[in-house]
Structure formats: C-alpha cells, structure tokens
Amino acid sequence: MPDRSFLEWSLTIQQRMEQVLDGFLPGADIAPQRLHQAMRYAVLGGGKRVRALLAHAAAELSGADAALAERAASAVELIHAYSLVHDDMPCMDDDDLRRGKPSCHKQYDDATALLVGDALQTLAFQLLAEPGLGLAPEQQLQMVQLLAVASGSRGMAGGQAIDLQSVGQALTQTELEYMHIHKTGALIRAAALLGVYSAAVVDPLRVKAVSRYAEAIGLAFQVVDDILDAEADTATLGKTAGKDADSNKPTYVTILGLPRARALAKELHDEAISALQHEGAGATRLRQLAQFITQRSF
Amino acid sequence: MPDRSFLEWSLTIQQRMEQVLDGFLPGADIAPQRLHQAMRYAVLGGGKRVRALLAHAAAELSGADAALAERAASAVELIHAYSLVHDDMPCMDDDDLRRGKPSCHKQYDDATALLVGDALQTLAFQLLAEPGLGLAPEQQLQMVQLLAVASGSRGMAGGQAIDLQSVGQALTQTELEYMHIHKTGALIRAAALLGVYSAAVVDPLRVKAVSRYAEAIGLAFQVVDDILDAEADTATLGKTAGKDADSNKPTYVTILGLPRARALAKELHDEAISALQHEGAGATRLRQLAQFITQRSF
C-alpha cells in the first residue's frame, strides 16, 4: 500500500488539476457552445491523472514553479483526453463507456467527438506556447517539440496505428512492447520530462534518469492494465471489460500468462527505481508513483 | 486574367511546396508504414496551395528567408490537409472525392484517416517548434501560438462545429460570415501572418495591414467557393458538386443570389487591396493573390 502522505499528495494534485483544466478550457457558454461543452465533458471530472501526477512529481524533483508544472501537466492531460475521445469512436475501438460515463461520441455525436479531439490537441500546444510564462522561450519551444514528437506519427498516434494493424495478429512480446512504447509509453515519458522542463534550470543527467524511469513506468503501466483487464469486470473498471480479449487484441496476459505478466510488472518497477538511484529525497514522489502504478488494483 | 509572371511565381511555389512537404513528412517506408503512406497521400500531389502562396507572398513582403517561409507555409498546409481529411469522413461531410481522387478514408479506412488527421496536426506544430532555425525563439513561440489559436475551438475547429449546427438552418448573412471567419478565415489569416513572422524583424503596422488584407481575402475565398459550387458540376470541380445545396447548407449564393454574391466578392477584393495601401511594390504578390482568389474560375 502506498503511504498516506502519497495518497494525500495525489488527491491534492488530482483536485487541483480539475480546477486548472477547468480554467484552461473555454467556458461552456462561449461559442461554439456545444463544442466547448463536449470538450469539457471529455476532460473534466475524472481519471486518475497519472500523467499529471508524473509531471508534478518530476517538477518537484526539479524545483519547478507550481504554475508551470500545472500548465505542463494540463498540456499532457489534454493530449491524453483527445486520444481517448478519438480512440473510443466507432471507427476505432467503438467504446460506449469511458470512466463509467457514456464516451464523448455517445453523449454528443461522432462529428462533435471528432472536433473535440482535434481542438483538445490544439489547445495542448497553445498552452505550452503561451508567451510570458517566465521560462526561457527556447525551453518552451523544447516542450512543444517534445510533446509533438511524443504524440505524433512516430509516437502515440503511430502506436495507435500499429495497434489497429495488430488486431487478430499473433504478436511476439517484442512486437507488443514496440506498440506500447509508442501508444502509451511516449506520452508518459513526455509527461515526466515536461515536469523536468518546467523548471528554470534543466539538468541533462536528470533528463536522462527521468527518461529511463518513465520508459520503465510506461511499459509497467500497460502490463498492469492488461493484468487488470484480464481480471476485472465491467462494474469495477468502468469501461467495457474483456474488450481487448474479445476483439482478439494481443495483451501481455495473452502472450505471457498472468504469473509472468505480474513478474514483468515487478521487474519494470525495479528498473524505474534503479534509474533514480542518483536522485535523493526529491525523487520520493516519483518512486511512490512507480509503486502506485505497478500495484494499483482499483 | 492574372499576369504571366504571377502564374509562373505560383507554379514555382506550388512545385517547391511539393518537395518541401515531401521532405517534412515521414517516409512511406518508416513504421508505421500504412499511416505514413496515408499521411503522404493526404498531403502530397495536389491542391492550389492557396495558404502556402499567401504565406510566401507575405514572407516576400517582409523580407523573410525562403527556408523559413517554406516551413511556415508547410505548417499551415498540414493543418489544412488534416482538416480536409477529417472533414471528408463519414461522420462529417461524408465526401468520397477530394481533388479528383478518393478521399483519405475511402483510399485507406476511417480509423487510418482519423489518425492521419491527428498526426498531421501534430506535425504542423512540430515544424514550428524545431530548434535552431535562426529565428528568435520567442518569435517561433508566437508562430505556434498564432497557428494554434487559428485552428482550435475558437478558430477553424470551432467554425466546423458551427457549420455542423447550421445544416438545415436559415442563417442570416451575418451568421454565415461568422461561421466562415472561423472555418476558413482564421487559417487563411494565420497563413499570411506566419509569412510576416518568418522574417527576422516583424513590423507591427505590417502585421495589422496583412491581417486586415487576409480577413477580407478569407471571406472572399469562401464567397467565390460558394459561387463556383453553385455553378460547377462534379466533372470540372473534382469534388462532389452541389453537395452543400443538397445537404441544405446555407451558402452566400443561397442567401444573396448569384449577382449579389459576385458583387460581394469584388467588394472584399477591393477591401484587401486597400488594406495594403501603405505597402509598396513588395506587396505585389499579395495584391495579385487577391485578384487570383476572387477571379479564379477553375
């Protein structure tokens, strides 16, 4: 069990992120109202905000300003939210539920969901390019670049394309890993690194350590997801469970079996911790997050 | 008729843009291949590249480097291409043809088209955030910001949302204008302004003049589009003509009738020219473009 102070810390950030995202999203009364309502529906009120927690933990390690960490975390959460909205659409995973609520295209309609995803992506880059934040402009540009590379055709969107092609295929563990490194790993790595880049001074050795940490955590996250998906039922997970198995998508559990998948999650956790060995107490939240991600069972 | 030197200039730029975009897009042999092939299919080999021409003409006026003008023009063309791919999808306009070829989702599939649009948008911002271009980083950030605002929920994507809501509605000319200012006008304005911002020195008065010019041209572009759509048939236009009238979408022609729509196009042309009155011979290409856009009949 993660300790009590970690749970308090993450709850505080989750609640704060809700306010911050609320402030960054256009108001529901601003035209076009339906689009803005749907954008807010897709982003607010839910999710574990794992990416925001990672950004904040890495920002704490780096001594970043809270406001800058919140902005970086918001940009990543907006990209994540856009990818979920598009991923749930009928032409992709065709999921009716998301976080226990109707997914965006079910609550609104397909065309609106398409535009919601498009506009959330744009807003993410807009946030990072805002002038006068008190960061060096070249560092802000690096953040835009980092987020773009992580979410584009050679990052997250590319991973989704590989995922599409893999339905019904018998993938090896290496091929599955390659897909997840892109589909979820790239954005998780970007979340942590944007936390580091939110600070006035960026230490290249720290960038390396956090990058290695986040790569391990990103894969662990997916392995645990597959384990949870294999175990859970619709009621507890809040999304249509067993979906991946139904649609013949390869998972760590179908390839490795449950016991070996659990061992792999543990291994990746240890790898993440070892990447932070030269960081001191400032990395406590990152270490706790590694544990939280690999041990979460809710 | 636009003069011969203008036609040569635009042909040169159209051809050069083909090479430049080809270089910016990931190769068709790079994984995920199908996604990269589809991205190239959606961007390369066609279009009048009006936005690229506007960016180049404004860059010439401002004395910008060719390489920077090409990059800015590419970013705008990628945003435009992404919007067309998503706009053609079954849940939006459901168009089977684009530039005389099967639209992206017909040539590939809906899921791939969704990801193509997503990844093209990302690539646009990635291009503008590239380090070491020789522009001041704060100016590059302004370019990212400008493109994001123009294409997001209060720009292009917002205009598309308004368009969705307007099907079957009896719009006034003011409401129609409001929609087009967002749907096409914002990106056309961004194209011209990114041309100005590609130069080492940005003159605020020039930004104002080019902005006013581009706002007029953006609307003119749409008025002419509606006129052409009303006149043309599928064979000459390369897209399913009469579609807007079929689906009961309001157009300038349905609201004003052909003669008054033509007069409006002329009026907007004159407004664009008058916005440039304090610019000298450097604005020749912009003036010619205004004429080209309002008089194009192919």
Automatic annotation (TrEMBL), chains A, B:
It comes from the Bacteria. CDD domains: Trans_IPPS_HT (cd00685). InterPro entries: Isoprenoid_synthase_dom_sf, Polyprenyl_synt, Polyprenyl_synt_CS, Prenyl_diphosphate_synthase. The keyword Transferase applies. One of its GO terms (cellular component) is cytoplasm. Pfam families: polyprenyl_synt. One of its GO terms (biological process) is terpenoid biosynthetic process. Belongs to the FPP/GGPP synthase family. PANTHER family: FARNESYL DIPHOSPHATE SYNTHASE. This is Polyprenyl synthetase family protein.
